[in-house]
Write a structure and sequence with these properties.
By secondary structure, chain A is of the alpha/beta class. Chain A is about 30% helix and about 25% strand. Chain B is α+β, with helices and mostly antiparallel strands. In chain B, helix 1 packs across helix 7, helix 1 runs antiparallel to helix 9 and helix 5 packs parallel to helix 9. Classes of the chains: A alpha/beta, B alpha+beta.
Chain lengths: ~220, ~280
């Protein structure tokens, strides 16, 4: 599903390489932790996967698409098949929970009652149905992250990326968010979680852990 | 429209003002064009008849000329007919008020057949001895045509400038609107929204602005046309320049031009901003 082949990434405005000669194959249905200290290249790997960055060298294939050669017009289609969760939620703060969760469904072309029913089903799964009309910006951090996870799961994407999804959460909310990601994994999604929180690793048995240090893999193990 | 109503109100006001100015240019052009049309219709050769010739003789001369192969049509116009026509052309100006005596001569209007030289016709006419003077309209008609072309050219050039100004106003308004909704656009970009999906609301907004501005500017022009002649000290030239009503083409042109400028401006304005910095 995801193949990094001798991939290197260098940002134009920064000295040094963010990633150097990364080679890894991630199969469909895997649960993968990307670990390492800040600046190790975890977020860069995720940004490359959803097409926010282009490789400087080497090859990256996601679901058959070569992201080094992908046309700008094809990136939206790629992103519609990827759910992304960020540490800072990236919600439409003025919108309601329902509006936030329904947004990717609307982008995907769903309309009317079908859209509302699908969004309601997702909100039910993340225990937010009773808060459907609440403003996202007025909710607690844990609730906002659940909304973000619900939004990422809304279209049932085969690939889910989470960049420090529990970074701003207390342990209880962190566990709840990890439970939602695990549910998605058990439903068949490939999940990549970038984190520097070692406690999260113990929550997912059998997950793969890729450890990055200064833009290179220093460890690849199964937990 | 969202929460930036002030931005929308300023944009619609600016567009309305631009369109109003454009409308004034159109109006001036329409009025001049109409005026030139009025004074040039029916003009060809005018045969001024001597004052001793009565109406019956004038009419029979016109009928006799009709038989000439050089003549396509000829029509007798008595002094009363001439005065009536003048009244109809310049009715709104009351030029004929207080006129005690009709100063116009009787004339015959002659339209020549194709390829007939006015000089040859005038030479043949001289043999009749029943015509006091021949007035040829062609030279001044040609000058009128040149003036008309010049007016149309100036109108087109000014319209082009106004069109660019309108597109610039819309483009800048859209840039501001996009900036206000930047966070939302970044989220949409991350969720895989296509460029058209992201552009759509801005394009609809530009069209709505264009329609509103078209309506407001047309109302302003209509008010100008109907109210100004009612004012007590309106100058004569201004009354003469204004048409009797707002020609239906003007609101249509203004709105169509503004919608086009809106589409162009919104497309450009959004394009510049949609080159978003990467999502994360």
């Amino acid at each position: 599903m995801i193949i990094f082949d001798k991939l290197s990434k260098r940002y134009h405005n920064k000295a040094g390489w963010a990633l150097t000669d990364i080679s890894v194959h991630i199969s469909p249905g895997q649960f993968v932790f990307l670990t390492g200290p800040s600046g190790a290249g975890k977020s860069t790997m995720l940004r490359l996967i959803y097409g926010a960055e282009l490789p400087s060298r080497g090859t990256l294939r996601v679901g058959g698409a070569d992201l080094g050669r992908i046309k700008a017009g094809q990136i939206p289609r790629l992103r519609r098949n990827i759910g992304v969760v960020f540490q800072d939620f990236r919600l439409s703060a003025g919108g309601t929970v329902l509006e936030n969760v329904a947004l990717p469904l609307h982008v995907a072309g769903m309309r009317g009652k079908k859209l509302i029913a699908a969004a309601a089903e997702i909100m039910r799964r993340v225990n937010l149905l009773d808060k459907a009309q609440c403003r996202a910006g007025s909710m607690s951090g844990g609730e906002q992250q659940r909304v973000a996870v619900a939004r990422a799961l809304a279209t049932g994407p085969p690939l889910l990326l989470a960049d420090e999804p529990t970074g701003n959460l207390d342990p209880d909310n962190a566990r709840e968010v990890m439970r939602l990601l695990l549910d998605a994994h058990q439903a068949g999604a490939t999940v990549l979680v970038a984190t520097h929180d070692p406690l999260l690793l113990g929550l997912v048995k059998g997950a793969r852990c890729l450890h990055l240090t200064q833009g290179r893999f220093s460890m690849d193990e199964t937990l | 429209m969202g929460g930036n109503l002030w931005l929308q109100a300023v944009a619609v006001s600016t567009l309305s003002l631009c369109l109003f100015i454009m409308g004034l240019i159109f109006l001036a052009s329409f009025s001049l064009d109409g005026f030139l049309n009025r004074i040039s219709t029916g003009a060809a050769l005018r045969l001024v008849l001597p004052s001793g010739l009565n109406a019956r003789e004038g009419a029979s001369l016109a009928l006799a000329l009709q038989e000439w192969p050089e003549v396509r049509s000829s029509r007798y116009l008595s002094p009363q007919d001439g005065l009536g026509r003048l009244g109809r052309r310049f009715g709104s100006l009351n030029l004929l008020e207080g006129l005690e005596e009709n100063p116009l001569p009787a004339i015959i209007e002659v339209e020549l057949a194709a390829d007939v030289s006015p000089d040859a016709f005038t030479a043949r006419l001289a043999g009749l001895g029943e015509v006091a003077e021949v007035v040829e309209a062609r030279p001044w008609l040609q000058r009128l045509e040149q003036i008309r072309r010049l007016i149309r050219l100036i109108t087109f050039a000014l319209s082009l400038v106004m069109f660019l100004a309108l597109a610039l106003v819309v483009s800048n308004t859209m840039r501001l609107a996009v900036y206000v909704r930047r966070e939302q656009l970044i989220i949409l970009d991350m969720l895989g929204a296509g460029r058209f999906y992201m552009r759509e609301p801005f394009i609809l907004e530009a069209i709505l602005q264009a329609l509103l501005a078209g309506l407001f500017s047309s109302l302003g022009l209509a008010a100008l046309i109907y109210i100004i002649p009612l004012l007590p000290e309106t100058p004569l030239w201004l009354s003469a320049a204004l048409p009797l009503g707002l020609p239906w083409e003007i609101p249509l042109y203004l709105t169509a031009i503004n919608v086009l400028a809106g589409l162009a401006g919104s497309w450009l304005g959004v394009s510049r901003i949609l080159r978003l910095p990467d999502v994360a």
